[in-house]
Amino acid sequence: MRIARPLIGLAAALTLAGCRVGAGNAPEPEILSVSQQVFWQRLAQLCGRAYAGRMVEGTDTVFARNPLAMHVRDCTAAEVRIGFAIGPDPSRTWVVRKVPGGLALAHDVLGEAVTGYGGTTRTPGTPDRQDFAADTFTARLLPPAARNVWSLEIVPGRTFTYAVGRPGVQRRFRLEFDLRRPVPPPVPQP
Questions:
Q1: Tens digit of each residue's pLDDT (9 = 90 or more) over 102-124
Q2: Pairwise CA distance, residues 115 & 109, whole Å
Q3: Which of 2, 20, 33, 95 is deepest in the core (most CB within 10 A)?
Q4: Domain 31-183 part of CATH 2.60.120.650
Q5: What is the largest distance, in Å, between two alpha-carbon atoms of the chain?
């Protein structure tokens, strides 16, 4: 019973904290699960920091031969933008947003026709991991990615992981960033 009371208190505090935004304290239109609220809080705690990473699963030679870096930046109560650089190319941004009923992940790629693809959570996930199933925009834009599931994982003080897979397909892609060693942020594209 000693464990249950603090957890109930934490859940209540996170629920109340998630209902207020900005100076006007207007309620947010979205409803996040307790797991999503904790995940969001963990993501927001990384704001302003950058981390080096590496491909831990996959076969893409561009990712294997270039240094990887992410920069958690542009954080608001409803959106977190994570700049992602592959070697000297900082043109990618992962955008995590609060949406009605959960979270959404979009991929912004500067200078590319294929941009804005991603997905939304369909389950509460866990405080450590959120899965984003491809949305209808993605299915129309990239039919082969219609069944993609992107995952973001945060192990506080240890790792941030970005992964993509497809149900029924063995091949996966996984990047891991070391949260124990911040690095200078990559220069973002204008």
A1: 999 999 999 898 999 999 999 99
A2: 5
A3: 33
A4: no
A5: 55
Q: What is the pLDDT of residue 170?
A: 75
Full 3-state SS string of 21-61:
ECCCCECCCCCCCHHHHHHHHHHHHCCCCEEEEEEEECCCH
At 68-82, the pLDDT tens digits run 999 999 999 999 999
Query: Which tokens hold the place of 65?
Result: 């031969």
Closest CA to 51 of 184, 188, 162: 184
Q: Are 80 and 96 in contact (CB under 8 A)?
A: yes
47-65 exposure pattern, b = at least 16 Cβ within 10 A, e = fewer: eeebbebebeeeeeeebee
Burial state string for 19-36 with b = 16 or more CB within 10 A and e = fewer than 16 = eeeeeeeeeeebebbbbb
